[in-house]
């Protein structure tokens, strides 16, 4: 089914946090290595993306839990799936390709199982493309503000490689998410556009930025509106915000996107703010109550959860979202006038 037509009819539900669910398992270094990387010279524990290869049953089960909870869209387990991010673990292109390919396959299998069982509620797979651990706009050296640890070309190449592997694995769309540096996001969009030109077809692309604190700006200093202007040259499926903030604090910035964005609007906030131990305490009910305010205002087309969210959170959000109509695109409102 064409997801654009579906989005015009209903609010779609994105899944919740992959990392939060992985943490519920007591995993060892051996779990991350498996037979595939049992002789690797460097520690791999904590490299969650690898689990799509070494413990695929865990990752597929997490996807299935989110679909069972009401999610329409699953994100692949590839948030750190670039050659740039995986270089920290001394892993190269062969492993990175498999991370993305296998992650996409697992999500695809889970989505297809649920779609077959419930044809009236098709499930989709979004290839998760994270921000990497480098920034193209900010120097990591306070004594040398002109220095950059990465170039635009290097980022674009790495993102294109990731996107190709995700495409080969069967994703329905790409989600460039948790954008803290808009130049990184533009590199991702450039790499994805190059891939589309090469294969002669396009997939929907979602972009989700991160407002890092109460200043209302991304880490690279842009307001929500400036962030939108920087990326709206690309024909996106949706633009949205995720991470860093809970639902309550995200609301004013979603109001900006609602007013200005020519695309569908998405949000996947955290389960509140972390406590002193870095844990997220917000209950599914409290989070759903805060999100209901977005829905009452008609701000949202796609809603899900980020850090700290679980299938219980997604189920509560899905139940609330089912009561509301999706946000109307500016074109629809203008046509109605």
From TrEMBL:
Pathway: Amino-acid biosynthesis; L-methionine biosynthesis via de novo pathway; L-methionine from L-homocysteine (MetH route): step 1/1. One of its GO terms (cellular component) is cytosol. Its EC number is 2.1.1.13. One of its GO terms (biological process) is methylation. It holds the Pfam family S-methyl_trans. One of its GO terms (molecular function) is metal ion binding. Its cofactor is methylcob(III)alamin; Zn(2+). It is an enzyme of class 2 (transferase). Keywords: Amino-acid biosynthesis, Cobalamin, Cobalt, Metal-binding, Methionine biosynthesis, Methyltransferase, S-adenosyl-L-methionine, Transferase, Zinc. The keyword Iron-sulfur does not apply. InterPro entries: HCY_dom, HCY_dom_sf, Met_Synthase/Corrinoid. It catalyses: (6S)-5-methyl-5,6,7,8-tetrahydrofolate + L-homocysteine = (6S)-5,6,7,8-tetrahydrofolate + L-methionine. Zn(2+) binds at residues 243, 306-307. Catalyzes the transfer of a methyl group from methyl-cobalamin to homocysteine, yielding enzyme-bound cob(I)alamin and methionine. Subsequently, remethylates the cofactor using methyltetrahydrofolate. This is Methionine synthase.
